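Saturday, quiet lab. Running sequence design on the structure tokens for the scaffold JK sent over.
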């Protein structure tokens, strides 16, 4: 009987010790710290208190001081908490469990008094995911619920794919960083243009769901064809692609010069094409009005045929004279070249000759030449060996000067 009483007493002591173990070993030194928060959220008595993510105590009490919840924390052993200490309520798990994270502060600020409270301006309250969701409107919450449900249902059976994606994700993050930097270049102008293009593309696809589905099926058939024989044909094409690309590049470089010449030629033709375009209305009018004259051409040709035939015969008869004419023209070339500077004087000679022979009558049967002697001082002075100072006449004028060369005397030109 006494033995049973001892066992029960020991069992009760162990039970009490286990119940109080959350607040430290019975009889051990403890430190109490109080902190005020704007929002305690789902924090409850018994939740962990941590320093540097190491459990150092538990929440022993939560009381409301005015509109601020004040949390009393019991820390195991003697721990120094300083006047600039801070406290945050953080999530322990996605199920809503919380804990208090304490930053003891700087020792140079002095130890926090046992009856002092860490003010709310140095604490950060709890933010529950449910409260964040409550901020959203009901349509948004319903859409979010549907999205999560569909994503969860779609992920069923793809655990392996998700694991593979997670395995390559770290390597993709570097590329994602490069893409992000490229998208934000120039103030995000490229990203803005991309989004605008995507929006236009999505609008263009609206109402073409059936066509897109058919295209997707055709694409699947094409990919299966490319994968025939484990992609052997595609592998062979890709193996030959570098050499083909080099040859293509060489061919394009060869075409560069002809294309440049073609560009220059097209630029040269452009003014003519522009002029033709401007003249098109007039050209069209000419072509439209020329129909009637052209209809008369056959009749004109028929009437002109005898004349043309006769002219052809004349030319045939004159053909033997062509060599003689050519020889005569060759012989006359030098005299003509010599006389060409005196063309004005020759014309003046024939003009004067025509004036001299213009007198005549039909009764006498022809024209006559009237000669009137003109006596001037130079008729006499010219016979003397001394030049007349009153006369300035050039006996041998240069070509073209005979018409303007006149005798001068002392009073002046006459």
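Result came back. Writing it out in full:
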């Amino acid at each position: 009987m006494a033995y049973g009483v001892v066992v029960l007493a020991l069992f009760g002591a162990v039970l009490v010790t286990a119940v109080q173990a959350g607040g430290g070993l019975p009889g051990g030194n403890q430190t109490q710290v109080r902190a005020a928060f704007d929002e305690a959220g789902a924090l409850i008595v018994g939740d962990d208190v941590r320093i540097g993510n190491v459990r150092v105590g538990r929440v022993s009490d939560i009381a409301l001081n005015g509109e601020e919840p004040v949390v009393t924390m019991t820390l195991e052993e003697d721990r120094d908490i300083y006047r600039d200490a801070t406290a945050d309520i953080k999530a322990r798990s996605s199920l809503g469990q919380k804990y208090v994270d304490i930053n003891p502060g700087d020792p140079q600020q002095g130890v926090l008094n046992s009856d002092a409270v860490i003010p709310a301006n140095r604490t950060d309250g709890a933010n529950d995911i449910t409260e964040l969701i409550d901020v959203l409107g009901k349509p948004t919450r319903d859409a979010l619920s549907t999205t999560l449900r569909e994503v969860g249902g779609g992920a069923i059976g793809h655990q392996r794919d998700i694991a593979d994606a997670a395995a390559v994700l770290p390597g993709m993050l570097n590329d994602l960083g490069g893409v992000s930097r490229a998208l934000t270049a120039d103030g995000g102008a490229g990203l803005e243009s991309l989004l605008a293009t995507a929006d236009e593309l999505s609008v263009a696809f609206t109402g073409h769901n059936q066509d897109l589905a058919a295209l997707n099926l055709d694409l699947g058939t094409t990919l299966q064809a490319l994968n025939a024989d484990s992609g052997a044909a595609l592998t062979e094409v890709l193996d030959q692609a570098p050499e083909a690309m080099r040859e293509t590049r060489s061919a394009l470089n060869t075409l560069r010069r002809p294309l440049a010449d073609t560009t220059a030629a097209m630029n040269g033709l452009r003014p003519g094409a522009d002029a033709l375009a401007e003249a098109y209305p007039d050209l069209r009018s000419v072509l439209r009005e020329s129909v009637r004259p052209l209809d008369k051409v056959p009749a004109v040709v028929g009437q002109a045929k005898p004349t043309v035939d006769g002219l052809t015969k004349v030319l045939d008869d004159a053909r033997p004279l062509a060599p003689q004419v050519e020889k005569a023209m060759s012989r006359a070339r030098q005299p003509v070249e010599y006389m060409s500077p005196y063309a004005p004087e020759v014309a003046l000679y024939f003009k004067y000759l025509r004036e001299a022979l213009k007198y005549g009558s039909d009764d006498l049967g022809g024209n006559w030449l009237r000669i009137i002697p003109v006596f001037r001082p130079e008729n006499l002075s010219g016979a003397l060996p001394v030049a007349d100072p009153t006369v300035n006449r050039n006996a041998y004028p240069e070509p073209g000067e005979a018409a303007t060369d006149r005798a001068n005397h002392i009073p002046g030109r006459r």
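Notes for JK: The longest strand covers residues 54-65. The CA atoms of residues 102 and 234 lie 62 Å apart. Ask whether to fix the surface positions before the next round.
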